[in-house]
Write a structure and sequence with these properties.
91 residues; mainly alpha
């Protein structure tokens, strides 16, 4: 789990890099809305392409039926979990 301080630092870093825009809520000044910039969208598309290529290489030997089964099973497991996934050390 990330601390509030770590999240705050990460958000500030992304704002400084021009990847996030900060907008104060008009109704409640304590709330802040974050919006990705066009530059962030371009990075997201690029990362999605890399993810697809990685999956294609890792799972190239699987049949379409096996791939579909794995995807559906993973989705179902995520939906049934009431708590977030944790590593062996509890984090």
């Amino acid at each position: 789990m990330l601390s509030k301080g770590n999240v705050s630092q990460a958000v500030e870093s992304l704002i400084q890099k021009g990847l996030l825009l900060r907008e104060q809520d008009g109704a409640d000044r304590r709330r802040i809305h974050l919006h990705p910039t066009t530059a962030a969208a371009a990075i997201t598309v690029s990362l999605e392409d890399v993810r697809r290529q990685f999956q294609a290489e890792v799972f190239c030997g699987l049949s379409r039926a096996t791939w579909s089964f794995m995807t559906e099973s993973t989705t179902a497991l995520r939906k049934t979990r009431k708590t977030p996934w944790r590593g062996r050390d509890g984090t």
